[in-house]
Specification:
2 copies of one chain form a homodimer.
Chain A: E1 2-8, H1 10-13, H2 21-31, E2 35-42, H3 46-57, E3 62-66, H4 77-84, E4 89-91, H5 93-105, E5 119-121, E6 125-127, E7 136-141, E8 144-149, H6 153-171, E9 178-187, H7 191-198, E10 208-215, E11 218-227, H8 230-248, E12 252-255, H9 260-270, E13 275-279, H10 285-290, E14 300-305, H11 309-316, H12 320-326, H13 331-345, E15 349-355, E16 370-376, E17 381-387, H14 392-418
Parallel strand pairs in A: 1-2, 1-3, 3-8, 13-14, 13-15
Antiparallel strand pairs in A: 4-5, 6-7, 7-8, 9-11, 9-12, 10-11, 15-16, 16-17
Helix pairs in contact in A: 2-6, 3-4, 9-14
Chain lengths: 419, 419
């Protein structure tokens, strides 16, 4: 099936906001095995919307429009689509009372132009919006389909996956009617290396499509299994996942949408482990990421950004001689930082980072991008040494990711030991 | 002038990456007073590129293409544009030796397909690329102009501002030949409030256009003054800036592109002030932002994320009774945290945050989004109390922004006192 995408709004044409809906819609369509023929943006303008719709319909089976469904006078998508095909508008009374209920519930003053959001072109089918007031719709035109969904990204995403894709699968029935999806998140291998390790897997014979999505510093793999039955799709997905797991095991941290921070949150909470962090080069980023998870105060006791040597010495008890002899950026210092913060905070674990984020401060022996990460536990302290080559901000990001990954691995090892 | 934008690459059509170039190009064009008629994305496909170019040229004076100029076989933009207009390709010897020099300089092995980047359609003019190997070009076609620039965002941005815009201004001479630009960054007012405070200014009569760009949690204002002479454009820009300054003074932190962290870095460095940070609800984000600036070790001594009450008590010396009586989220605790970390680190300043990022932990008196921020100096400690209503991550962002803003204001006040 051939798809066209039309994002609508003056704010896209003047560059005021970047269009994130188009790439999300394209990605979802692609994962269904559909081909995206063209992506366009257009302003809130009747003639231009008609012109772009005609052009897109000339080369596609369905056009997905996003944006311009709100209550204000510049939101004209519904009226423009109706006008483009000579259709009148009707009011859907169910939608109207649904919108009025929202206003009552949140104690908002009803303004009459909100009724606009309950109006649809004759022949359109309503697609409900569970995250906002403006519903979307689908309109069959000349054996093709036009979809209209809101521009608010969270609403557009929900309606694309829960409204547009099922409707398209229904209107254009395919042999492989069932699609099951799995995201696998990895860290530590380049995209080319991930690709190389998986190249011998025959995904096609399993009826599974595979996509690679770099989300710095991670690489995400998305699998879609399609089949005539739900069970077969699930089986095939599981087979493909098993093949990937056996080849990338050490680099996978999440089967599904959970972030690395969220995976760690579960591991620490389930095993009643507490942690304290001592950071140097990451400047607070490790602790900041740990505290992005609600409830992190259950396991994170404190974090110290010991940026100066004085702070490393006085708070963490790293001996001045060690810093003098081996340098603040060294395995010795990293280990003592992790052990020091663990002891100071009285936690089960202590995690530390010391390195050179750049752009200055590098040397021949320890170039910009060098980092030592240590994790102190009750029995032992482990330390890892890495070299990266990014700019300051990306170095901080990849340092923090490697530190959290070390923590995840440690927790998993401890758990498997106690079982 | 009417502009069309065409971003080229299979990675855009399958949603693998989001298109950020289109919105940047649209914004720059808009700031020149030009109208963006259509934005399109297309895959690396000869026929599709020709088709989209014809369509865009039918409604515009110039089309700016981005992407597909690299050395690999799927980069076909140059050949597709040549083919679309029946033009042959020529090799620019200067460009070829420039690219070969880069390979020699960085000790890279020369692969012959790199020579592709020195090939251009007959009649094209080269636009140099100072950040990469692939140059761009402009091609006059049927009294219109086609531009091709790389897809790598940093290269696309540089070539848009330094190559495409000057060339368009030259080829389509305008009365207001000189354009001067100024960005003004604000924090603390909603976009609607900024708009409202500026609504009495007659920017038109000054020949100045004004654009508002929300960059959460900041609002940026971009002024463009156009005039027949450079001096007049500069004068008009200054006039407009003065009008804005007098109305938004308390909310502006940057005239130009500098970030809040960079503004603070200058203030602290120039005044030889050192700082330490004690964070609770921001979880390390304030310290992380301060350390995003290279050279921050000159003024940042340490940062503590005292997430637990125990850490607040033992490291910062906040009395347990104070926390018990007023709560960890209170003006009293915030003040003692700032004073405590200042004393502990022996710095000129101490900055603290304590609040409720959410989604849990709120109460009727102190709902989610409540934050107390304190700054301790040699003479006194100041404290601010705010209430925001975002989700956890955005609350952390806006809390950290408000803390850094408080720090900026303090530094400026101190400096004006000593003068």
């Amino acid at each position: 099936m051939r798809i066209g995408i039309l994002t609508i709004g003056n704010e896209l044409m003047n560059g005021r906001i970047a269009d994130t809906n188009a790439s999300f819609i394209a990605r979802e369509a692609n994962q269904q095995g559909w081909s995206v023929e063209a992506i366009m943006s257009v302003g809130d303008d009747f003639a231009a919307i008609k012109n772009r719709l005609d052009y897109l319909l000339s080369m596609t089976d369905a056009v997905i429009c996003s944006g311009g469904l709100g209550p204000t006078s510049d939101d004209i998508t519904t009226a423009a689509i109706a006008e483009a095909f000579g259709l009148s508008l009707y009011t859907d009374e169910n939608v109207l009372s649904f919108i009025k209920d929202i206003f009552t519930k949140f104690n908002l003053r009803w303004v009459e132009n909100n009724a606009k959001q309950a109006m649809f072109p004759q022949g359109a089918e309503v697609i409900p919006n569970l995250r906002g007031t403006a519903p979307g719709f689908l309109l069959p035109v000349k054996k093709k389909l036009i979809f209209a969904i809101p521009g608010v990204p969270a609403e557009a995403k929900m309606m694309m996956t829960e409204g547009v894709i099922p409707a398209l699968r229904k209107h254009f029935p395919q042999n492989d009617q069932y699609a099951e999806k799995q995201t696998i998140k990895t860290f530590g291998l380049s995209e080319a290396a991930v690709d190389d390790r998986l190249k011998d897997i025959d995904f096609d014979s399993m009826g599974v499509s595979v996509g690679f999505y770099p989300v710095f510093p991670e690489n995400h793999i998305v699998l879609i299994a399609r089949s005539k039955t739900h069970d077969e799709a699930q089986d095939n997905l599981q087979k493909a996942q098993n093949e990937i797991s056996s080849r990338l095991q050490d680099y996978i941290f999440s089967y599904g949408e959970r972030t690395l921070e969220e995976v760690i949150a579960s591991l620490l909470t389930e095993n009643k482990l507490t942690i304290a962090v001592a950071e140097s080069c990451t400047g607070g980023l490790i602790t900041n990421r740990l505290t992005d998870v609600s409830g992190s105060s259950d396991y994170l006791e404190r974090g110290l950004v010991t940026y100066s040597n004085k702070a490393k010495i006085s708070m963490l008890g790293v001996p001045a001689e060690i810093i003098e002899k081996h340098g603040a950026v060294s395995e010795e210092t990293a280990r003592l930082m992790a052990e020091g913060v663990r002891k100071l905070a009285g936690t089960d674990l202590g995690l530390s980072s010391t390195g050179i984020a750049g752009p200055t401060g590098g040397s021949k022996e320890k170039p910009v991008g060098t980092v030592y990460l240590a994790l102190a536990g009750p029995q032992q302290t482990i330390c890892r040494h890495y070299s990266f080559r990014w700019d300051r901000k990306r170095n901080k990001e990849v340092f923090s990711e490697a530190a959290l990954f070390l923590l995840k691995n440690y927790c998993e090892t401890q758990i498997s030991k106690t079982k």
